[in-house]
Amino acid sequence: MESKSERPNGRRRRRNPEATREDILVAARTVLASDGPDGLSLSKVAHLAGVNRGTAYQHFETREDLIKATVDSVSRHLSTTVFGPPDEEGKLPDGGKRPVYNVITQLVDFAVENPELGRIWLFEILSSDNPEEDVFFKQFLQATQFMADNDYSEDDIDAEVLSVIFLAGYFLWPLWVRSSARTVKERREMTLRMRREVLRLSLHGTLREEYFPQLEALLQDKSDRRLQNMETVP
Amino acid sequence: MASKEKQARRKRDPESTREAILEASVKILARDGAEGLSVSSVAKLAGVNRGTAYQHFQVKEDLIRATLDWVSHQLLESVFEGGDLGGEPPEDILRPDLDHMDEVINRMAEFNLRLAEYAIENPDIGRIWLYDVLSRENPRDDVFYKRFAQALQTLAESDASVDDMDVEVQSVLMLTGYFMWPVWVRAHARSKRARKEMAKRYAGEVLRMSMHGVLRADSHAILNAFLKSK
Hints:
The structure holds 2 protein chains of 2 kinds.
Chain A lengths: L1 H4 L11 H19 L6 H8 L3 H7 L3 H21 L16 H14 L1 H12 L8 H15 L9 H22 L3 H21 L8 H8 L4 H4 L6
Helix pairs in contact in A: 2-3, 2-5, 2-7, 3-4, 5-6, 5-7, 5-8, 6-9, 6-10, 7-9, 8-9, 9-10
Chain B lengths: L2 H7 L4 H19 L6 H8 L3 H7 L3 H21 L20 H21 L1 H13 L7 H15 L9 H22 L3 H21 L8 H8 L2
Helix pairs in contact in B: 2-3, 2-5, 2-7, 3-4, 5-6, 5-7, 6-9, 6-10, 7-9, 8-9, 9-10
C-alpha cells in the first residue's frame, strides 16, 4: 500500500493521460499531507510529479479542482482498501457483511501505515459543508448501520455518532504512533494496541455495568431530566 | 466568546488587549489557516492599533504559537472548569466507591454534554485544536489532551471501570470525535435548539458506549478469545 502511494516519480510513468493524471494526484497527496491545502499550488504539484505545468493545467484547471480530485481519490482509495471495490451504486460490495473484526484490523493497520492519507481525509472533513457526502464516510456509516441493525450488536446504537467517534480516533492515533514508535516493531505494537482497545471497547465499554444501575435508567429513559435539563452552554 | 461582549468589555489594559488579539487570531486562523494570518490583519479585526499588536507579538510565529496555546487553555478551562493543569485532578472528581456512584454518573454525563456543546458552539476552537494536534511533533504534550488522559487514568484505576483499559488509546478515541461532530452538526442543524439536540445525541452515545460497548459480549466468544490471547 505504501509503495503504491509513494511511487517514485517518473519511474513507471507512461505518457498516456490516465497515468499522467494519476501521477499528478499522487504528487498532490504528498503536498497536501505535508503542507495542507493552503500550501498546495498546481505548479508545485506538477514539478513534484515531473509533469509539464501546461499538462497539469489541462487535467486540472484550478487549484480547487485539483484539491477536490485529490481528496476524492483518497476517499475512494480508503473505501477500496477497507471495504473492497464498491458496486455501481456505491453500495458496499458485500452489503456490509464483512466481519467487524476485519474492518477494524484493516482500518487501524492502514491508518498507521498511511498517516498522510488519514491527515488529508481529516483536513478535508473538517472543512467540508457536507461531510456525509464523503464516499468513505458513507461506506463506513453503511457498515456501522448494518452492524447496529444486527442481532449481535447492542440495541440503540446511534450509528452516525459512532462512525464519527471511531473514524476520528483511527486517523488520529497514527500521530501518537509517529511521535513515539521508533522501530517497525514498536509501530506494530502500537497498531495492535489500537486494534485491541477498539475491540475491548466494543465488547465491554469502559464502565462496569453492575455498578451503574442508575446510568442504565438514564439511557433507557430518554426524557430523563439529567439529560434534558443540563444547561451548560453559557 | 461572543464578539459583542468582546467589544463592550475591551478596555485599554494590556491583558484585555492581548485577549482581544487572541480572539481575533482564532477567527482568522480557523478561516484562512496559518498561511493567511498576519499580525496586522489580526490587529485590524481586533480593532487594535498595529503597533500595539506588535508590542504583544513581535512576529507572526509568536502570535500563532500563543493562539494555539490559548486555544488549549480555553478548552481546558471551559470543559474542566478551570482544572489546574499539570496538577492532580481535584480529589472529589471521582469517588468511585459504591456510595458515590450516582455522583460519578452525573459528573460523567455532565462532562460529556459540556464538551459536546462547547465543541458545537465553538467550532473554531475545536478546528484549531485538531489542526494543532495534527501538526505537532508530539501530540501528547498538548495540555488539554494531557488533562483528559489524566481524568481517564483516574477512572481506569478506580473500581468503576473495567480492567485492562488502554488509557492512551481510549483518550484519543474519545476525545477526537467531539471536535469532528460539529462538522455534522453544522451541516444539519439550523437552530440553537437543533444544535443542542445533536449535542445530546453525541453525549448520549458516548455514555451508551461506555456502559455497554457496541457488540453483545455473549455472542462473541471468538473475539473474547482474541482479546485474551497475546
